[in-house]
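Contributing new records

If you add data, match the layout below exactly. Sequence lines come first and carry their own label; structure lines follow with theirs. Keep one chain per record. Anything else will be rejected by the validation script.
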Amino acid sequence: MPPFDRVVELHGTTVLRVCRALLDPTDADDAWSETFLAALVAWPDLPTDVNVEAWLVTVARRKALDVIRGRSRRPEPVEQVPEPSPASPFDELLARDDSLLRAVRSLPEGQRDAVVLHHLAGLSHLEVAELTGRSHAACRRAAADGTAALRRVLGDTDETLSAPPRPTRPTTTTTTRPGAPRRTTPREGARR
């Protein structure tokens, strides 16, 4: 196993992306810290064959869910506005994608998890299925539905969200008998 500080260097950005996709920036930073504190405690007993990145993403997701659940139990001050901290390069990137983050956070939990873990954390659908306890097919479907919902919400103006064009079938031109009209378009109701 690599030293723990090397693990933080390698996977810190991925864990922060997962936390920021699920939480606001302040809570995400707290969840990131809690993730690595919990990981540090568990590090000596961790099996050597474990996928460290997937394990850290699981811990981060659970810490983020703890924050979301805890949010409903604590009062929110309404008269005080928190001061923003100095922006890091990653914060500037997120500020540009604020509408995308709001859209991701508005997704149902299953779709949000699938989109965040697959597209932001870079895990395969099989790894997402293992982490979330859902089937592989359910994770693929949730990721597809989540991506489609994001396209609808964001207006599909970003080229990265655009689906590739579907190939179309060429229309056939056949003649059944001499002098009969040629069919240039498919019949109504015919399968395409």
